[in-house]
């Protein structure tokens, strides 16, 4: 009877050890960006930047105000 209890204790220890060493495979769904941001191109210098960081000017986007103003000045002639 003593050995049966010892066997059960060893079994439980082995089970807990096995559980703690189990490694779950990485889930590719978690790593994927749920909402990839749209990228736009600066109409002046051609740099790519997220749409939220860009300055929209009609159908075009610019990376900063200086480039937007430069494009405006070019448009005026
Ligand atoms: Zn630019």
- Radius of gyration, in Å, reads 30 Å
Give the termini distance in whole angstroms: 99 Å
**Percentage of residues assigned to helices:** 40-55%
Helix-strand pattern: HHEEEEH
Taken from the alpha-carbon principal axes, the silhouette is rod-shaped
Uncertain residue ranges:
none
Strand content: 15-25%
Bound molecules: zinc ion
- The total of helices stands at 3
Q: What spatial order of strands do you see in the largest sheet?
A: 1-2
Structural class: alpha+beta
Number of strands: 4
Mean pLDDT: 88
The major pleated sheet works out as: 2 strands, antiparallel
What does this structure look like?
The protein is 47% helix and 16% strand. The chain is built from three helices and four strands; from the N terminus they run ααββββα. The protein has helices spanning 2-21, 28-31, 65-76; strands spanning 39-41, 48-50, 55-57, 60-62. Strands 1-2 form a two-stranded antiparallel ribbon. The chain has a two-stranded antiparallel sheet with strand order 3-4. The protein is rod-shaped. The termini are far apart. The mean pLDDT is 88. Bound molecules: zinc ion. Zinc ion binds at residues 42, 44-45, 47, 62-63, 67.
Features:
two-stranded antiparallel sheet, two-stranded antiparallel ribbon, alpha+beta, 77 residues, 47% helix, single chain, binds zinc ion
């Amino acid at each position: 009877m003593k050995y049966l209890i010892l066997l059960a204790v060893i079994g439980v220890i082995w089970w807990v050890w096995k559980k703690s060493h189990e490694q779950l495979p990485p889930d590719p769904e978690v790593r994927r960006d749920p909402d990839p941001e749209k990228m736009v191109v600066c109409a002046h210098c051609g740099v790519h930047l997220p749409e939220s960081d860009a300055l929209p000017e009609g159908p075009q986007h610019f990376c900063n105000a200086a480039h937007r103003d430069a494009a405006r000045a070019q448009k005026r002639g």
